[in-house]
Specification:
Layout: H1 2-12, H2 26-36, E1 41-44, H3 52-62, E2 68-72, H4 76-88, E3 92-95, H5 103-121, H6 135-139, E4 154-159, H7 163-172, E5 182-186, H8 192-203, E6 207-210, E7 221-224, E8 230-236, E9 239-245, H9 257-268, E10 272-276, H10 285-293, E11 297-301, H11 311-317, E12 323-325, H12 330-352
Amino acid sequence: MVVRQMLADVIGRDPEIEVVGVAANGRIALERIPQARPDMVLLDMMMPEMDGLETVKAIRRTDRQLPIIIVSAVTERGAAITLDALSAGATDYWTKPKNAKGVEDAKALIRQELIPKIKALTRKTVAPPAVVRSPVRQARPEAAPPRRPSRVELLAIGSSTGGPDALAALLAELPRTFPVPVVIAQHMPPIFTALLAERLSARSPLRIREATAGQVLRPGEVWIAPGDQHMVLSRDNNKVSLEMHREAPENFCRPSIDVLFRSVAQAYGAGALAVVLTGMGNDGTLGCERIRDQGGQILAQDEASSVVWGIPGSVVRAGLADAVFSLSDMPLEISRRVALARNSQAATASDTATP
């Protein structure tokens, strides 16, 4: 009751938001939703009579579009239940302020972290913050000029809001014989990323793991940056390995897509293929700029298939995306680009071979 009252009070004080109802459990919430007609539901998982997971399933049986934000605890059980809820149709989650130093600190975190999620998910388009870039980049159209693609040696993926489901859909469609390593920065707290990797691996032909320092990148292996750590790539001659650090968050994020993508550009240059998926904010835009400057390729998820078109929209508006695809079309395009230079080189070698 105390937490519900705090959330209602802080959220309701925002001039752009009206709290139209409060419920003590999922059963009461389901009774009130048709009358209140909310634009969003904020839902705790641990409730009496009808818990959050069952409530998500019940809402989704009648409404596929209503945004649902899960309020979660940063524990292994909380992470598991949250991922179950996301798989059942929840839109996003917010972790309770475990380390808040009192009530006022907790209220500040609600204003800084939760309210922006509510606003982002109840707007059709999220305009990203301005990105500082060169005059040439400012003049670019939304579609970047066509270029002859280089041989892809690494796939790097960045995602945030809506990312777990998007990653599940994408990785499940990549072939078991995928010929390059995959690195992923998904905005998530500790514990969550390890469980996410396990679940994604169970649904994909590829082996997917939470990253640890010192791991050497190999074809067909997928590594997810651990929560609350930046992941970077380090090259030593022909060997590329993973490193972690806890330097300051970038774009309020740790792991940050920008941090990962900058290291990708340095380690792989024109051999990098970056994919930006659904997410709030603009983390990844400057990293994509670095990858493109080194000759790498960039694909962005389209607005229609994104939960929030903040991250990919920012990259597209900056003129950095080589192409924009729906989530359903993205795996095939990735595979096509990865195979393109390899097939071309194989054909050239065959034509020039001595009988």
